[in-house]
Amino acid sequence: MSAKGRPEREFRPLGGSEVREPAGPPQGQTPECEARTSSVKPRAWGDHNDAASVRLAHCAKTFPDGTRALLPLDLEIQAGETVVFLGPSGCGKTTLLRIIAGLAQPDAGGRVFFGDDDVTARPIERRNVGMVFQSYALFPNMTVAENIAYGLRVRGIRADERRQQSARLLDMMRLAGLGDRRVDQLSGGQRQRVALARALAVRPRVLLLDEPLTALDAKLRESLRVGIDRLLRSLGITAVYVTHDQAEAMALGDRVAVMSHGRVEQIGAPQDIYYRPASAFVADFIGTMNRVSGERDGPSLRFPGGTLRLPDHAVAADHAMFRPQDARIVEPGAGALTGRVAAAFFLGSMTRVVVDLPGEQTIVVDTVERRSFVNGDAIGVDIDPDALVILES
Amino acid sequence: MRTRENLFLALLALPAMVVFAAFWLLPMARLVSVGASGPRGPAAYLAIVTDANYFASLVSTVTLSIGVTFSTLVVAGIAGMFLQRNDFPGRAVLVSLLTFPLAFPGVVIGFMVIMLAGRQGLIGSVTDALFGSKLVFAYSIAGLFAGYLYFSIPRVILTVMAAVEKLDRALEEAARSLGATPWQVLRDVVLPGLRPALISAGAICFATSMGAFGTAFTLATNINVLPITIYTEFTNYANFSIAAALSLVLGVITWAALAVARTLAGSTVAAAA
User: Among residues A232, A234, A239, which one has the least CA distance to residue A77?
Assistant: First the structure.
């Protein structure tokens, strides 16, 4: 459930407002990746001096039928930062992306800035964005190379220069030799990379990605996710990424914005979102979260199955939440909670145990212990107080 | 075993073969032989290029049909795109009104052209009031052009609307995101996307215009287009061989246009007309 890309992230500075140094050494680039791009001048795309910050001021969107797709939002995305908008379908994330792109207009009063530049009134064709669509939207009447060079062509760049640039991008995206293919001769993963190359060819100020991996199968998705992560990191480009896949969001985002019903519920580093959810929606939406409620007894929470000591900042809470991996299985009576095994699933790397607590509450505990569980057995569960999540109110 | 199976299959194909022979092969063979049986002999087939009259008739028919086809594609292409992409009150009514001419036979279309551009027509009386002279073009190629345009537009509009509906909007958005102006989007994305539909609609439009008779006959019997020429050769001069030869040439040109369109569009072009 936790982000699979986590180990890689630990080499990078964390925190809500960090900025990747646009011209710094390409981070996260492995020797393997460098070997692949050694024939290219990575600086050609790495020098993203044009990377702009994006600022949304009071952007809301009401559809003609009166539905509020997006509630008023103020948000700043730093130059070079990757922000992922994560949420279920209909949460407004795509509308938000379209407003940034210039494909949709915010309601009156909303403004969109790229750097200091107010682009609100500018249509998409004059915003210099790169956009990657869920369906890829590659032009079927053009070859792969023509697709990639299209943005240069409409800018009136000479044919030989266009050829050079698209060859460079083909190399960079490991598509060398496929330039003359028709789009329908490519695999899904190749199409996705062509779409990305086409968006990057115009050196966009902001790269916008609308569920770019959703159409692919799970295995390919994971490998392309790594590829995109490296690319965004080495280019230092400002990127806005929309997805409903939380693993993707956690792996790619410098910050993740969790959205629901047209509202940003929480925005922060993936770790913040995961370990310190700010609302019940975020807690439920990201990963698996246990929730136990009981009677408040001083600094503790008491329920039929035991007592749980709450952290000091929990003033009036009558419940506590925790992740399955933050609980430990102990002898019955030894931990904060005591219950009975309702089911146990051996998942290979761990065992997921469903525990029935007295009083109709059920929790899920992940354990790496090599023991077997028999349904109905009494077990104890202990939870690290620091791992408890408390939502006041 | 194998032979019996083949025999059975042949038996199944028999009804189709009979129909094909009775209503296509035999009449065509007869037409070919009639065409070659006149005083000119097989040279009747060359008459369409050697005889100035017939050749002029061929040229004006083809020119008219090409003109009608391209004008229709432009008018109906723009209208179809607009109608499919914009929703406004009364849109459904407008679409059904625009497709109304489909219900009329050629004779009625001809009649309507006369009402519009004939000696007593609307255009005539307006120009008479404004400039003191009547503009009358109903009884000429121009009148025929107006009539053919009128009944070609609905078919093409419907085809274009269906094709526009199937266009992937993301393609246009992608082109725009790359900086393409509306004209460049039209040239590089929309028109290529509509190409098969435009080709097949255009081919049918061309074939219809080549063979249409009712409208031309209503407007005047002396308009020099192939169907009328065939009619006059046949009924007025009883010149069977020339009529047969011209019919074949007309058929071959139309068929060839449809065949070329089929190859270009890569999809089935219905052999209407």
Answer: A239
**Interface contact B168-A103, CB threshold 8 A:** no
**Measured distance CA(B212)–CA(B31) in Å, rounded:** 20
What is the overall mean pLDDT for chain A? 83
Q: Are residues B7 and B83 in the same domain?
A: no
ipTM passes above 0.85? no
Supply the CATH classification number for the domain A290-387.
Answer: 2.40.50.140
Report how many domains make up chain B.
2
Kindly state whether residues B9 and B93 are assigned to the same domain: no
Interfacial A residues in 281-340 facing B (CB < 8 Å): none
* Residue B225 sits at the chain A interface (C-beta within 8 Å): no
Q: Check whether residue B98 and residue B226 sit in a common domain.
A: yes
What is the average per-residue pLDDT within A222-239?
87
Q: Taking Cα atoms as reference points, which of A227, A273, A221, A282 lies closest to residue A250?
A: A273
Question: Are residues B17 and B126 both part of a single domain?
Answer: no
CA quadruple B208, B211, B217, B218: dihedral, nearest 10: -10
Q: Kindly list the residues from chain B whose CB atom is less than 8 angstroms away from the CB atom of residue A134.
A: 170
Give me the residues paired with residue A307 across strands. A302
Q: Is A72 helix (H, G, I), strand (E, B) or coil?
A: strand
Domain with CATH 3.40.50.300 in chain A: 6-128+203-284
Contact B174 A125 (CB under 8 A): no
Tens of pLDDT, residues A198-230: 999 999 999 999 998 888 888 888 888 888 888
A214 neighbourhood in chain B, CB within 8 Å: none
For residue B272, tell me if it sits in a domain: no
Are residues A345 and A351 in contact, defined by beta-carbon separation less than 8 angstroms?
A: yes
| Residue A49: other Cβ atoms inside 10 A | 10
Boundaries of domain holding B17: 1-35
Structural domain contains residue B270: no
Q: Which residue of B has its CA nearest to A133?
A: B170
Beta-carbon contacts of residue A121 (< 8 Å; ≥ 6 apart): none
- Assign A49 a pLDDT band (cuts: 50, 70, 90): low
Q: What is the pLDDT of residue A31?
A: 39
Q: What is the model's pLDDT at position A7?
A: 36
Residues of chain B with pLDDT under 70: 1, 221-222, 266-273
CATH class of A6-128+203-284: alpha beta
Residue A309: Cβ within 10 Å count: 14
Contacts of A313 (CB under 8 A, 6+ apart): A390
A193/A35: higher pLDDT: A193
Residues B134 and B88 in one domain: yes
Mean pLDDT of A19-27: 39
Chain A residue numbers with beta carbons less than 8 Å from the beta carbon of B173 are: 103, 124, 131, 133, 137
Q: What 3-state DSSP class applies to B29? A: helix
Q: Indicate whether B40 belongs to any domain.
A: no
Residues B256 and B171 in one domain: yes
Q: Are B179 and A202 an interchain contact pair (Cβ–Cβ within 8 Å)?
A: yes
